[in-house]
Amino acid sequence: MGGNPLQYFLGFFLLLMCFNAGLGSNFMVGEAKVGCIEREKQSLLHFKQGVIDEFGMLSSWGSIGEDKGDCCQWTGVECDNRTGHVIMLDLSLKILRGKIGPSLAELHQLKHLNLGFNRFQGVLPTQLGNLSNLQSLNIQNLGNMTCENLDWISHLPLLTHLDLTGVNLSKATNWPQIISQMPSLIELYLSFTHLPWTITTISISHVNSSTSLAFLDLSSNDLTPTIYPWLFNFGSHLVYLDLSSNHLNDSIPEAFANMTSLTYLDLSNNDLNGPIPDDFGNMTALAHLYLLWNRLNGEIPKSLSILCGLQRLFLPYNYLTGLLEKDFLACSNSTLEALYLTDNQFIGSLPSFSGFSQLRELFLGFNQLNGTLPESLGQLAQLEKLDIASNSLQGTVSSNHLFGLAKLWYLDLSFNSLIFNISLEQVPQFEAQFIMLASCKLGPHFPNWLQTQKPLQKLDISASGISDVIPSWFWNLTSDLYWLNISNNCISGTLPNIQAISSLGMDMSSNCLEGSIPQSIFNAQWLDLSKNMFSGSISLSCGSSNQSSVGLSHLDLSNNRLSGELPKCWEQWKDLIVLNLANNNFFGKIRNSIGLLHQIQTLHLHNNSLTGEVPSSLRNCTELHLVDLGKNKLSGKIPTWMGEILSGLIVVNLRSNEFNGSIPLSLCQLKRIQMLDLSNNNLFGTIPKCLNNLTALIEKGNLIISYDEAVYNRSWVHSYVDNTMVQWKGKEREYKRTLGLIKGIDFASNQLTGKIPIEVTDLVELVSLNLSRNNLIGPIPTTIGQLKSLDFLDLSQNQLNGGIPHSLSQIVGLSVLDLSNNTLSGKIPSGTQLQSFNATTYEENPGLCGLPLVKKCPEDKSGEVSPTGLSSKKEDNQDDKNNIGFYGSIALGFIIGFWAVCGTLLFKSSWRYAYFRFLTKMKDWLYMTTVVSMNRIRRSLQR
User: Fold this and answer.
1) Dist. CA 20–CA 32, nearest whole Å
2) Which has the closest alpha carbon to 71: 82, 61, 83, 58?
3) CA torsion angle for 319, 324, 327, 328 (degrees, to 10)?
4) How many CA atoms lie within 13 A of 459 on its CB side?
5) Residues 148/172, Cβ–Cβ less than 8 Å
6) More confident site: 915 or 132
7) H/E element holding 386?
8) Of the given ranges (143-157, 448-462, 575-589, 876-890), which has the lowest mean pLDDT?
9) Cβ 518 vs Cβ 538: under 8 Å
């Protein structure tokens, strides 16, 4: 019974060994035996050979021939603890490039493969179909990868999750059949895969759709309605469906309503039209519905009011109409978190939204809503975003409407007729990041409550009726701002030396600000201080050292009282896209360093006192679209390189300077030019015959000069539409959004000689042509009638001779015409167009006659043709021919009509009898009516 201690020890040791064998690798002895399998390790290393790892994400792997130990310890690798087989490879978000090699197919026990969010290229190896144990496959790709077919997926019976987003599947024509045969597939993501746009109907009805598929994302492809039969085979199994950004058109099929398990449906950014199906109310599980960016019309179906689980409803950018009834989403008032109805055609007043206890985002902007802002909005305790911009709301906004919304961080009530009535003492509970109140009545004093909004990122209080000095506390708000707009007010005072952040955009235009512009403000990225009363020099700005990598891209200081020479330090502003210094008092030369502005697209130096020649370095600014140097004192010749190198120019304005020499032939190379103004200079020589090479003046279409200027490191893009001063119908006007409609050539007030080249009449889209006040000779081109789009034509004060071409009367849209002070002769062509102008249009042409001039033509007096009236005689002969044809057609019509009626009566007795019976009845009726009427009148007179 006692036993030997050694026997007890041996027995315990054997028991321990058995126990350890049962637990496998949980003990150190077991762990020492199980590690990375060499064959799988080499497979991983061969995969790495085809990968470009710029950032060393796979440095722990080593390379072939280099022993980096157990591969189960490598980045992204996970092994089975008992067998050592690699069961998961997760290299997502590792910024890898290169190719995916077939060696991964050697990892036979692999269950999860995630290579998503990398930039692989080449062809996806079909050998991945050998991974029969694979349960999830994610190759969501940001590079340029293709896959010839999806047949290999059918060999993965355990696959539940498949994500091929970004892989080109344009050749995988049988993808619907393959997917339908996947027995275990639950999630499928094929977004941005260039799927074939039509689905062949080959035995789709005979395909057994996977009953397991619950999540399906086919967004951002070119799919058409041919996808519907395959899609509706899944019936009520789908929970998540995304078909956004495809080519779905026509109305929304009612069959969607049969997908009663759907909680998420996205059909946005297609071409769907018609009403929202009323049967959508059958999808009682629906929580997220996205139908934005379509052409849907009609009212919001009342059936949506019974979707009690609805959380997010997105219907913006459609043509939906009707009233927003107070109970249009009655059942979801306790679940709805986001409602987006922006940019539709809803009318009526705002519903109260009382009871929507979970509402966080409410967007109703750009509709036709009217009435007042309901105070019940102040009860939406969870509200974070409120946008009712661009409607017709009016009335007063008090603290009860908004100030109790403690979670509000986005507020946009812009472009309504709302009046803010908030006392200086009232403080809102919220601290908003975005406040847009443009065109609301906030003034006349600066809204004091703004000083509590410390995390402010965007503030727009433009055109808000403020006529006050900027308070000192206001500049404390700029530390986090990236967009500030206080334009179109009557704000006065000076600007302090604030430290603008590098991504800040500021619009302070159209105010009464004065004094010098502080140096530090040029550290901003977007700056508009135009239409104020700033004075002094801006050359001091060269002392500012913008240390940020993002420099000033937009600078508008036009319409101020600035003076001095232009800055010398253009290299500091090398990121400028728009530079506008027009209508100031700058003088001196344009510095050669302006050629360092390689990004510039718009250059306005109009109406200053600049001298010297156009700097040759400007030829380096090859991105230029608009150059306006008009109304200065610039001299020298117009550079030939302007046409040879700056091929993107759309507007060139050099008017009212002292340029001399001839018009360079190279300007004919400006294919995109729409406005060319060289007037009021000292140019001589002839008008180039090559002007018919100006393609934009021949072809239809307008090139609007606009830019989307993005603020770096921010999700903000500012759309800027360019403007310029155009001499139009004798007055200088500013054109902006309509600038692209003004296609014109203005060579007036120079010393040009020679004839008007007939090639000018090939510019059939020309709207304005001004060649006045030159020394042009010869006749007006007879083909001038080709310029059907002309609205303005001035050829006055030249030495043109001959007759006025008859084709000129064919330009029906001509509203301004001046042919005065020439030596034109003959009869003014007849036609309402040319006779509608005042006589001053033709004055000082001694040889002209005919209306609207008082002077009659000789042939009008005696029928004789004057020696100078040959063209008029031809026109009269043409009129005689027209008259003969006219009267001849009357006679022919009379003869045909007469015999059609009388001939029938003559030869058809039944018609003849009926006709004369009708005449007899008419005679009797007229006789009786006349007698009765006369008797009534006689009786009334006797009374």
Assistant:
1) 13
2) 61
3) 0
4) 24
5) yes
6) 132
7) strand 385-387
8) 876-890
9) no
Q: Which helix (H) or strand (E) holds 20?
A: helix 5-23
Ranges 321-335, 535-549, 897-911: which has the least confidence: 897-911
Residue 890: what residue type? Answer: I
User: pLDDT-derived band of residue 392, with 50, 70 and 90 as boundaries?
Assistant: very high
d(C-alpha 135, C-alpha 131), whole Å: 9
Contact 810, 787 (CB under 8 A): no
Residue 524, SS3 per DSSP: coil
Least trusted range by pLDDT, from 199-203, 568-572, 613-617, 880-884: 880-884
Count of alpha carbons within 13 angstroms of residue 25, beta-carbon side? 11
- Whether cis (ω within 30° of 0) applies to the bond prior to 852 is yes
DSSP type of residue 680 = S
Signed CA dihedral, 928, 932, 938, 942: sign only: positive
Residue 768, token pair as written in the block? 């304005």
Q: pLDDT tens digit string along 314-352?
A: 999 999 999 998 788 888 888 999 999 999 999 999 988
Of 482, 473, 485, which Cα lies nearest the Cα of 500?
A: 482
CA dihedral (319, 320, 322, 325) positive or negative: negative
Residue 402: CB partners within 8 Å, gap ≥ 6?
377, 378, 386, 408, 411, 428, 430
Local structure of 339: helix, strand or coil: strand
Neighbours of 221 (CB within 10 A): 22
Distance CA 707, CA 717 (A): 10
Say yes or no to pLDDT of 865 above 70: no
C-alpha angle 214/217/220, rounded to 5°? 170
SS3 636: strand
CA dist., res. 282 & res. 304, Å (int): 9
pLDDT at 28: 35
> Within 10 A of 525 (CB to CB), how many other CB atoms are there?
27
Percent of the chain past pLDDT 90, that is, above it, reads 66
Task: Name, of 390-394, 715-719, 787-791, the range with top average pLDDT.
Answer: 390-394
**Helix ranges (DSSP H) in 374-414:** 399-402
* 283, amino acid identity: M
Output the DSSP codes for 760-811. GGG-TT--EEE--SSEEEEPPPGGGGG-TT-SEEE--SSEEEEPPPGGGGG-
- Cβ-based neighbours of 333, under 8 Å, separated by 6 or more: 355, 356, 357
Residue carrying the six token digits 């009516």 = 929
What does the block give as tokens for 128? 């991945």
Selection from 584, 627, 591 nearest residue 609 by Cα: 584
The b/e string for 106-118 (b: 16+ C-beta within 10 A; e otherwise) is bbebbbbbbbbbb
Structure tokens given for 497: 């030396």
Tokens of 678: 């060289």
pLDDT for res 3: 47
C-alpha–C-alpha distance, residues 722 and 742, integer Å? 13
Determine contact, residues 687/659, Cβ cutoff 8 Å.
no
- Separation of alpha carbons 941 and 926, rounded Å: 23
Instruction: State CA 814 to chain mean position distance.
Output: 33
Number of Cβ within 10 Å of residue 440's Cβ equals: 24
**79 DSSP β-pair partners:** 86
Count other Cβ atoms within 10 Å, centred on residue 498: 18
Non-local CB neighbours of 456 within 8 Å, separated by 6+ positions: 432, 433, 434, 435, 450, 477, 480, 481
Cis peptide before 496 (omega within 30 of 0): no
Determine the distance from the C-alpha atom of residue 171 to the mean position of all C-alpha atoms in its chain, rounded to a whole number: 32
What is the token pair recorded at 435?
Answer: 């406040």
Give the Cα separation of 228 and 212 in Å (integer). Answer: 19
Neighbours of 42 (CB within 10 A): 14
* Residues 6 or more apart whose Cβ sits within 8 Å of residue 701: none
Cα 135 from Cα 137, distance rounded (Å)? 7
